[in-house]
Hints:
Blueprint: H1 3-17, H2 23-37, H3 53-66, E1 75-80, E2 86-92, H4 102-108, E3 117-121, H5 132-138, E4 143-147, H6 159-164, H7 170-184, E5 190-195, H8 197-208, H9 210-216, E6 217-223, H10 239-257, H11 260-269, H12 271-282, H13 290-301, H14 305-317, E7 332-337, H15 345-354, E8 359-363, H16 370-373, H17 375-388
Parallel strand pairs: 3-4, 3-5, 5-6, 6-7, 7-8
Antiparallel strand pairs: 1-2, 2-4
Helix pairs in contact: 1-2, 1-10, 2-11, 2-12, 3-13, 5-17, 7-8, 8-9, 10-14, 12-13
Amino acid sequence: MSETSAEAVVSAASAAASSAGNWRKAGVAGAAIGVVAAGAAAGVAIERLTVGRGMRKKARLALDSTGPYGTLRGTPGKAYADDGTELYYEIDEAEPETALTPRRRRLFGRKAPAPVTVVFSHGYCLNQDSWHFQRAALRGVVRTVHWDQRSHGRSGRGAAQLEDRKPVTIDQLGRDLLAVIEAAVPEGPIVLVGHSMGGMTVMALAEQFPELIRDRVVGVALVGTSSGRLGEVNFGLPVAGVAAVRRVLPGVLKALGQQAALVERGRRATADLFAGVIKRYSFASRDVDPAVVRFAERMIEGTPIDVVAEFYPAFTEHDKTAALARFAELPVLVLAGVKDLVTPSEHSEAIADLLPDAELVLVPDAGHLVMLEHPEVVTDRLADLLVRAGAVPAGATVGGYGSTSSSAQPG
């Protein structure tokens, strides 16, 4: 796509925001926001579609009705943020015989402490189900908590955003995570796992509550995330296109967030374009199960446009580099897809440079949703981290994560 055409897409989105009665422009605006919702920016080239629209719609409906992803459920619970926002979480308990490692049994005998709990934090425009494969693999092996960030999934809309129109901050997300931990993991050691925005949430927790990290956290996994400088990411676009996007996008998002109903109709009208954008910015390999791709679409489609607008400014302001020092003495996994266009793997390498004892894993042929695209790699390295953290015994069987190959059966 040429630089001028990239600017044209942004210009069209801006025009749509100011013309509520223009259906065609609203569709373009929805497509532009679809790019943002996928964690990218406007101005991406999409391959020409060769299958009829009606057939594509039928295929999506078929995948929606049969796709097994995101169907795992645990014991539900609710926590409340410091501004009153309701935060939804689910707990998967470990089987009694795997709740303690042999070493911990020998050390503590009958007075063994609470088992290790692994707390998963998801990314922007996703929800707790984005960890589907890892959740399936760890069920019964270790106690886990999966939660929906504010305004995502089953959690409530941000109270401060609805009532006072305050923008969301990464610091607020760190305090939200603390509220979930206090409700779902009141005692015992913790392993923190975060993808993308979830990793930033973990860093914000560490910055604001270092005593929690010191006293209770025994391991950390940071997947496809960044400690700062996200404003420099080019999303695979030409320089001029990136400059145009950065210049107008904040204003466009704000305007579109105020016309949510119109834009949501536009997003539905441009579903095919939206799907293409999501696939490009979520996955890198060609052989991905269509049901997994559709699963990612559903999660991102489920994020309202005004939520997209509320969160977006926080990323350019995000800088938690100093907070990484809180993890220096812990087992840490830093993992990223080499072809991630949203949070480039260089950001993970920068994190690993500041944590020289961390395990750095760069996954070839992987995009931003690496835990869905290559679940076997993510789950294997996460299982190793849990062994190092003392959460599971070295001989524990961790499996059932399946494959996202289009020729394989889902796990």
